[in-house]
Every structure is written in C-alpha cells, then in structure tokens.
Specification:
Elements lengths: L2 H14 L7 H7 L4 H12 L3 H19 L4 H7 L5 H12 L6 H4 L23 E6 L3 E10 L7 H11 L3 H5 L9 E8 L2 E9 L7 E4 L3 E10 L1 H20 L7 E7 L9 E9 L4
Length: 283
C-alpha cells in the first residue's frame, strides 16, 4: 500500500464515522490491509492511535457545536452517541478539563484537534544519519504493559519512561544490558486488538523483569538528539513522508522500536535517540 495515501483515506473514513464505534480490525481487514502494521504506521505518522484521533476529532466538533450555540446540550449529546447528559459531561471534562457550559468562555484555550493531512516532500539529502543492520530475534527484558486500543495514547510510552526514570529503575535495567543493542529500548506493537508496550534492555541474563522478543529483521537505524518524544516523532515523520519515497523500501511496521542512549538521563533534551525502522527482506 502507498502509506501516506492510505492513511489519508483512512482519516477520511474516520471523519465520516466520527459518531460511531469503529471496529478498526474489521474495517482494515475489509480494506485489504493488515491491522497490526497499519496501526503502528498510523500512530507513528499521526502521533496518536486511530481511536485517539477519532475521539479528539469528535470532541473538537462538539466544542465547535457548543461555541456556535445553535443546538441544545441534550441534542448534541444524543447526536454524538452519548447515552445521557452525565456521561457526555464526564467525557467532555476528560477531554478539555472544563464543563460544556464553560466552552464559550474558554474556547480559544481549548486543545482542539483539526483534521490531519499530510504533505509528501521530496528529499535530496538525508536529514538524519542512518545505517543498516541485520538483527536476529532478540530478547528484551523490562516492563511490559498491555492496553486496550481505546485506552492507549501515543504519549504513554514517554510518560512511562519518565516514571521509571524518576524511580531510578532504568539504571537497574541497564545492569542486565548484555545484548547486542546498548541502551534503553522502547518497543511497541499491536497485538490482539491492543497495544503492547515494553520498556527494557536487550539481554540474555536471568532477571526479575518481564520479557518479550522482537522479530528478526533488517533495520535502518536513524539517529538524532533531543527529548525522546519530539526527536522520535520527527524521525518517524521523516521516514514515512520523505525517506521511504526516495528509497522505495518495503517497511515492516509490525512493531516500532526506539533506542535511547544518554550519560545523564533518558528524558532530557540531550538524549541520543535512535529509531530502528524494520524492513521486509527481499526474497
């Protein structure tokens, strides 16, 4: 599939079904797309899962309706599929931190989500240093968390990273880092309708932590310096919007993997951030 074009088409589908509960696996299967890789692509490109995008867009449309003042609150709640006013008020408060009645007063300060569109920019020279490496499947030991897709937010992995940093757990993890990749690994993949997140290290040692295994793959490794969330987001956008169109590589998006290297801490603005983008191998 042409990645950006299909993501654009799927965004149109979401926009047309904002008020509905979308079964993403079923819809993508019907479109002939493998959900596991697509969810990872969408999250990398948009900076949020499809469910998060749908929710943010729906709440934005509701905020515009409230600002316009043409409909009663009960009618807006019913139109957007809420079973009653109380559940609608709770959802609105969670989205914006205010009640629906305060919308007009605080409208300009609301964190609204306008429709996403992508621009593909031709690339003449590399924006990020990169190199290729082949890695057999390897073990990551660390902390594994599983989230239903509707509860997962793209920023959760960095929030979890910060939590582990604050509790001085990352240094403990690094004691087990005897594998081929040095540094803290953020490993994210779509499994059985949900997101599996692992923060850990490449290790062959017995440890008190949980574990998961990667796929064997050829990787292109991109590198930058900065706060992990911003630096990794910029690299992913570069890969999907620019790099892949010049290189014409078949990207394996069944999972995403970032490696963080730092002599100080792993959430600061001077962390070395690597995105290990997997490729499908030519047969």
């Amino acid at each position: 599939m042409e990645t950006v074009n299909f993501v654009e088409k799927f965004i149109i589908y979401i926009e047309d079904h904002l008020r509905e509960r979308i079964d993403y696996d079923s819809v993508l299967d019907n479109m002939g797309v493998e959900p596991k890789s697509f969810i990872t692509i969408f999250t990398s490109l948009a900076g949020m899962t499809p469910y998060e995008y749908q929710t943010r867009r729906k709440m934005t449309e509701i905020a515009h309706e409230l600002q316009a003042g043409h409909l009663r609150l009960v009618d807006i709640a019913k139109f957007y599929g809420y079973r009653d006013i109380d559940s609608f008020k709770i959802a609105y408060l969670e989205a914006f931190g205010i009640s629906p009645y305060e919308t007009e007063k605080h409208f300009d300060a609301l964190d609204l989500q306008e429709r996403i569109s992508f621009e593909v920019v031709p690339v003449d020279r590399p924006k990020y240093p990169s190199r290729n490496a082949y890695m057999e499947s390897f073990r990551i030991t660390g902390f594994v968390r599983n989230f239903p897709l509707e509860n997962y937010r793209s920023g959760m992995k960095y929030d979890f990273l910060a939590y582990l940093e604050e509790n001085d757990v990352l240094n403990e993890l690094l004691r087990y880092n005897d594998g081929g990749i040095k540094g803290i690994i953020l490993h994210e993949r779509y499994v059985d309708g949900g997101m599996e997140l692992t923060v850990g290290v490449s290790s062959t040692l017995a440890s008190p932590f949980e574990e998961t295994y990667t796929e064997s793959s050829e990787f292109v490794i991109f590198e930058s310096v900065g706060a992990p969330a911003e630096a990794a987001g910029d690299i992913y956008r570069y890969i999907f919007r620019r790099w892949r169109f010049k290189e014409e590589k078949d990207l394996n998006c069944n999972f995403s993997m970032e490696v963080l290297k730092s002599r100080n801490d792993f959430v600061s603005g001077d962390s070395k951030v690597q995105v290990w983008q997997a490729l499908y191998q030519d047969l």
